[in-house]
Amino acid sequence: MKSNHEIAGYALEALKKAGADHAQCVVSTGKTDEFNVDGGQFSLMRSMFNSVIVLKALKNGKKGVITANRLDKEAVDNAVQACMAAAESSVADEAESIADKEKNEAFSTGVLTPDRNRLFDRIQEYMDDVKRDYPKIMIEQLISKYTHSQRVFMNTNGVEFEHTRGSYDISTMFSAHEGEQTSSFNGYGAEFTSLDTKLIDIGMQRILYAESEKQLNTKPYSGKFTGKLLITPACLSDILMAAFSNFISDGTIMDGTSPWITLLGKTVAPEMLTISARPLDSAVACGERFTADGYRSENMDIIKNGILNSFMLTNYGSRKTGYPRALNLSNNLFVKPGDKGLKDLIASVERGVLLNRFSGGQPGTNGDFSGVAKNSFLIENGAITDAISETMINGNLSDLIKQVIGISSETVCDGITVLPWMLFDGVTVTGK
What we know:
Layout: H1 4-17, E1 22-38, E2 41-59, E3 62-68, H2 73-88, E4 105-110, H3 116-133, E5 137-155, E6 160-178, E7 181-182, E8 186-192, H4 205-214, E9 218-220, E10 224-231, H5 233-247, H6 250-254, E11 275-277, E12 300-304, E13 307-308, H7 315-321, E14 333-335, H8 342-347, E15 351-355, E16 357-360, E17 368-374, E18 376-380, E19 383-389, E20 392-396, H9 397-402, E21 404-413, E22 418-430
Parallel strand pairs: 4-6, 9-19, 10-15
Antiparallel strand pairs: 1-2, 1-5, 2-3, 5-6, 6-7, 6-8, 10-22, 11-12, 11-14, 12-13, 15-18, 16-17, 17-20, 18-19, 20-22, 21-22
Helix pairs in contact: 1-2
């Protein structure tokens, strides 16, 4: 067995011979070339190889799932036996299934032949740019990689998908330093397929570095008010995904605890808000091409003009609840830009907070959240004023989405998402 197709085909045949009524197999292989910078100095260069096989077998309505990280015949045979044993010991569930065959396809995305020397040069240039343009910033850690992978999906209904992809990425952890003063740490990441652009110009890194330097002198807010929250693109994806996890994912829809369970096709936000998951968009470095269930991925609207257009259900969640399955894995969020510039949004805020990072626990099932505003600023009388510390924000995610009052015309693309600044009302801000 040499190719991922051959390994997947062998595993499926072995599962059928072992008594599986239906089965699916995902085989992934890849290589990652990684550069590390620690404390401003190159510290590591390495190449890593990975291989994974994921088996799913159904027998008499009972499911077994096994993951292994070796692809030799002995390892696959052992995984098949373990998968069937897991199925035998599980409970029958009529919602379990595998995808029906549609059109088999092979996809190739991104850059499949890396330029490692140029990547190294770009990283060195990046460090020089930060040192020159943001002298108070310390890059505590930088990791940049080129990753090439091939993923094959096959099942006993004849479904076959293959995705070969290659991309670069960068992730940083940084803080500002001046004498004895230090800002709170922050981090940022982006994915890209071209080395034609300076790495520091990808996404909103320059904005975050400039703001970190302003956060050397923070002030704890004193008092409490209910006002506005301007969430930056660096933070917005986490907030939206926390809301969607609570309101429209398998868990809360299947157990009936989602406050949005009856709102499919109904208004959940102002008309200005459209949120999509768009893995096939050209702005995404290497978006998925098929789902974990074995369906071809498509772009989809989650909220369109304020109306809840789709839950984020897997095929299993769909069969369990009767609601349509999601058309993709919902990783690549896009928010439709608004008609106001960021400066105008800020000017409209009498009292509020510019939120770059939120540190808090998992929201309650009903969407209640509470946490600390990190790397953030106070907005007063239409202007950004003090960098704040020890400041809590709390509210409800469902109410927050209902109270979107502004979306910037500017957006930031990090190769994974395309997001604007979003202004919300009705958030409680509490200081010392």
